[in-house]
Write a structure and sequence with these properties.
Blueprint (H helix, E strand, L loop, with lengths): L6 E4 L9 H10 L5 E6 L11 H10 L4 E6 L3 H11 L1 E7 L6 H13 L4 E6 L17 E5 L15 H9 L5 E5 L7 H7 L3 E4 L1 H4 L4 H23 L1
Parallel strand pairs: 1-8, 2-3, 3-4, 4-5, 5-6, 6-7, 7-8
The structure holds D-xylitol-5-phosphate and zinc ion.
């Protein structure tokens, strides 16, 4: 099975919003592969963050792909704005689409708006089987390892079985994990088959950002290699 690349996607939610441009430059210089942007509407999740105008400003200073995680009740309503603003990955939550038909409709809608990559996210209580029928249509599955809404929460290892289920089923797209990821938790995520790692507080709270990102990447790669050898 081809291994998707190992990507570190620091979450700007943990950055200093008073100097976002500088934070983007700093985290890119430290080795970020993607930039994770948490969009919250105060309705789908009990928190409010940023919208398309801020993403547009970030796109002007960023050289890395913008990985936009939509925690909003009406992703289709705002998809065009985010694509125009420069989103590279656009991910919506599966809980909003109760049936495979609705999931397909939403994926098609996001693609129709021009999103280069479309993703589907699952909160911890949402079973992975919920999206079984649409896996061929998604570029990325985002497995939440905390309840969406806030940074700085504790990693929930019980969601790792979702990643294993996807890889065992032959899913070769990106699997991203988000919530409570850092140097201590990244190995188990990588071993299970995750290849995109979101980290907010671990990266922005670090006094050695380049070192933290490099060690996370190395630990993830080592765990993936170990897992591959275990299988062969
Ligand atoms: C939570 C967000 C996460 C969050 C991760 O709803 O989706 O991206 O910023 O932050 P940490 O890494 O601090 O758990
Ligand atoms: Zn996120």
């Amino acid at each position: 099975m081809p291994i998707p690349p190992t990507l570190i996607s620091p979450s700007l939610l943990a950055s200093d919003f008073a100097k976002l441009g500088d934070e983007v430059r700093r985290v890119e210089a430290a080795g970020a592969d993607w930039l994770h942007i948490d969009v919250m509407d105060g309705h789908f999740v009990p928190n409010l963050t940023i919208g398309a105008p801020v993403v547009e400003s970030l796109a002007r200073v960023a050289s890395r792909p913008l990985d936009v995680h939509l925690m909003i009740s009406e992703p289709l309503r705002y998809a065009r704005d985010f694509v125009k603003a420069g989103a590279h990955v656009l991910t919506f939550h599966a809980e909003l689409a109760p049936t495979p038909a609705r999931q397909r409709e939403m994926l098609k809608g996001l693609r129709g708006e021009g999103a280069p990559l479309v993703g589907i996210a699952l909160n911890p209580p949402c079973a992975i089987e919920h999206i079984a029928d649409v896996l061929d249509d998604v570029d990325l599955v985002l497995v939440m390892s905390v309840h969406a809404g806030f940074g700085g929460q504790k990693f929930m290892p019980e969601v790792l079985s979702k990643v294993r289920w996807l890889r065992e089923r032959g899913y070769v797209g990106h699997i991203e994990m988000d919530g409570g990821i850092g140097e201590k938790t990244i190995a188990q995520c990588a071993e299970a088959g995750t290849n995109v790692f979101v980290a907010g507080s671990a990266v922005f709270g670090s006094s050695d950002m380049p070192g933290t990102i490099a060690r996370m990447r190395e630990t993830a790669r080592a765990a993936q290699t170990k897992e591959l050898h275990a299988k062969s």
